[in-house]
Amino acid sequence: MTLLFNLMAQSLQMLLVLALAPLLIGFVRKLKARLLRRKGPPIIQPWLDLIRLLRKEVVLAENASWLYRSAPYMIFAMIWVAASLVPTFATGLTFSWSADLIAIIALLGSARFFLALAGMDIGTSFGGIGSSREAMFGSLAEPATIMIVFTVSFVAGTTQLSEIAAYMVANMELRASVGMALVALLIVAIAENGRIPVDNPATHLELTMVHEAMVLEYSGRYLALIELASALKLLLYISLIACVFFPVGLASHDAGAEAMMIGLCAYVLKLAIGGGALALFETTTAKMRIFRVPDFLGAGLMLGLLATLLVFVTRSL
Amino acid sequence: MELLTIDIAHVLAGALLLTSFMLLYQDRMSGLINIYTLHAVILSLSVAWQAYYQDAPHLYFTACIAAIFKALIIPFSLRRIMKRLGIHRTVEVVGGVGITMLIGIFLVALSLVVMLPATASADPLSREDIAFALAIVLLGLLMMVTRRNAVSQIIGFMSLENGLVLAAAGANGMPLVVEISVAFSILIAFIVIGIFLFRIRERFDNVDLSELDRVRGGRS
């Protein structure tokens, strides 16, 4: 009975992230439009787009290899697994033993690798540009992420995300190093999701685009999978920040259905706050030049390093 | 409760260190002055918290001095200097931002490595505050070294002085006279530097200090 309940909670989480990710994108778009005094499409528009894309015919370039065709499935699977391992409404779910932070980063890294390969596969110049830029950002963003992981796991004494979240719920404490790790993670999240100061998800301007350049040749269901994967990635970063740094309302796995409902409401609220903050940030900042991005990400890397250093200072572990 | 008090002091000192790094990263004059204002505000909050923690009312006075002079008067007059000299441009940096940041990290690590063992017997709060303060002083020096523009060098100097005040507030039983005299000497130094700035500008038509090398007959 307990096992059944646990399995249900886990599959609920998997479906929840899948259902909420496009809605989150739609919410951010709607809010951005409202902030610019425009009306904006309805919040479920990304889902409608995805369904429309799924029904469309796939157009493939003649020299597309098997890699090009299988990459969307792999990217989508990896990011979905990673997103459903992050605790959203409850900690210690059935598969949380595998929710190691390093494993999640490895999943995201492999997804990025396949995306970059697929971008180069067709042989168009845009794909190559996008892939090389993505590799440049990745080489700075991933060490920064690793540093953040080190900081958080030094504080909590484990790299397992569920236990980190449980530790953070149990000991609410202020630490300078954790604060710096939060700022660094925000920088990395903005860069990884191609949000505004780094990359603009709404345009196809060849001078600046990164993510769009890599997926330009995709169509039909492949494009739907890639779009869904990138929505899931945004959701993953927001829920990662929420569960490590703001674990308010997070239920534990044996707390019963009522606590889980509270956790669910808190999670949706946190997503709304995260999306709202993102929309506000994006409307108030301008996009930076592509060659300024390494500086921006370098600041993130530096903050991560600093946070790891400060763990040894504050309270001397 | 005790732990929370120490935590808040740490977060404030850490925020001060973070703003020092933001000063290093910033490349626009007006942004630089805004972040310097933030730096001073965090400093006065930090000193006020130390006053509460050590139960030393004269530190509240120091916090007020920091808030009034450093967060109001100096940014205001820096803005005026900027307007009078007509510099709104970006700041010229010697070497890249990334390299500067890396050196900054090394300086922070260095100050932690030096200060933590050296002050092992002191009480934990002031000990770590002093480590942070040394890091902020070194970052201020680094900023003075890596900027060509005299106004941004002044800001480096002022942020260095904020680190000194943090160290002074962390040390138990620093007399008020010392703090006030330090605050006023800094103000005098600021005025003197301001006058020099106008003289440099009269002479060379800009405030780029590399021009001074030419006069001295050095390189370039």
UniProtKB/TrEMBL annotation, chain A:
One of its GO terms (molecular function) is lyase activity. Its main location: membrane. Keywords: Lyase, Membrane, Transmembrane, Transmembrane helix. Signal peptide: none annotated. Pfam families: NADHdh (PF00146). The chain crosses the membrane at residues 12-29, 73-95, 101-123, 135-154, 174-191, 259-281, 293-313. It is a multi-pass membrane protein. It is found in: Membrane. One of its GO terms (cellular component) is plasma membrane. PANTHER family: FORMATE HYDROGENLYASE SUBUNIT 4, FORMATE HYDROGENLYASE SUBUNIT 4-RELATED. This is Formate hydrogenlyase. The lineage of its organism: Bacteria, Pseudomonadati, Pseudomonadota, Alphaproteobacteria, Hyphomicrobiales.
From TrEMBL, chain B:
Its main location: membrane. Keywords: Cell membrane, Membrane, Transmembrane, Transmembrane helix. It is found in: Cell membrane. It comes from the Bacteria. The chain crosses the membrane at residues 6-25, 32-52, 58-78, 90-118, 130-147, 154-174, 180-198. GO terms for cellular component: plasma membrane. It is a multi-pass membrane protein. This is Hydrogenase-4 component E.
